[in-house]
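pinning this so it doesn't scroll away 📌
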Amino acid sequence: MHVSYYVKNFDKIEIDSSLFFQEKHKESRNYNANFVENFVNYIENNEGIISVADILENVFPEIECDIFLSHAHKDNSKVINLANFLEEKYECKVFIDSIFWGNIFNLLKQIDDNYCLQKNGNYNYKKRNFVTSNLFLILNTALHKMIEKTNYFFFLETKQSTKENQNLISPWIFSELSFATQVIRRDPQKKAL
């Protein structure tokens, strides 16, 4: 990473975009629909051992991007509009985790339903905690790798991401911001904005 920015009051900024970022980047999502079934079979056949490399490759692959946008999930539409603007105006590629990798909670629900659901309709507590904690750690690592690889990191502060006293609401944003302050700065790999 080269530079990080803290954008205060992002929710007060007007952004107009008629582009459809999600449609434009459907091909960029590397989420394999069969991965959940394969992942569940893999866990069962390997006595609960998870291959981090398999998950990183199939669910959270590294993507070449110039800008990382850290934001609250509830601000996704506005963040997508910002990404449209940046990509059109500056011809750069913007990383939004939910666009490229999908939603971690949707993935967890699918895995829980396939691997952790018991015949009585309840989830197996031990299996569910195992899968959730492992996937969260792997996602966190993947996010850090993306922050390090991009040239620019933007945190978009809104009422959805911080409380009035400036405390962060999301542990994911906290992790991204913490890592962004610690990553080694380097010269940008591509064009500057």
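📌 and the second one:
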Amino acid sequence: MSARAPAPAPAVPRRHPALVHHPGRRAVLTCALALGSVGAWAAAAAPARASSGSGPEIFGCEEWGALPPSEPVVVLAAPPQRIIVHHTATANVEDYSRQRAFALARAIQKHHMDTLGWIDTGQHFTVSRGAFVTEGRHESLAELSAGRGQVRSAHCVGQNNVAVGIENEGTYTSAEPPARQYEALVGLCAHVCAQYGLPPSEIHGHRDFNSTACPGDRLYALLPQLRQDVAALTGVQGWWGGN
């Protein structure tokens, strides 16, 4: 269930020089993932894979076993104006399975709802280290597939009405994401840009708007390359001053 509302005036990007780490999120999510690796979910049958239009394959909330939101999500009439890249600040695991990606999605939702008191997962999409893309907040995939509005989110203060939030599993302060994960991020960002008519220059890091270390120094340093790779994939030329 969703309620559609008008979007507010565009927000102006602002960089905050101070960087603050959030160790609590890693501890809570690591614990939740450990608990979520056993029990009923371990025996669940593999669900069908969802797809958003002709873009990358994305597993919707129903596919990974999301709980319903605690109240209806709000779908804003205006399309998003930018993409904001995050990292989950969790362990850089070597489990690249779909089961792990689904467990991560459930752990994030549980943390956001039970600990932070949000109505649902805060971000719109999550990219696992195994390159599986899952929907975060309910209705995000439907809006992306239609290329219309966006779901009001809770991933970046001041940007939740105007930006698509993408979490990347892992901690990228000193390590870079796996190649497969980066490629999945490129594909997802390219699809978001194509669906909403966004230029690759509107791909930002969380730290561009809030006082945080997210998405980590190494992933943040990859953002210029990410913009170029998305431009190449979408056929956009000249936005960075070249031909």
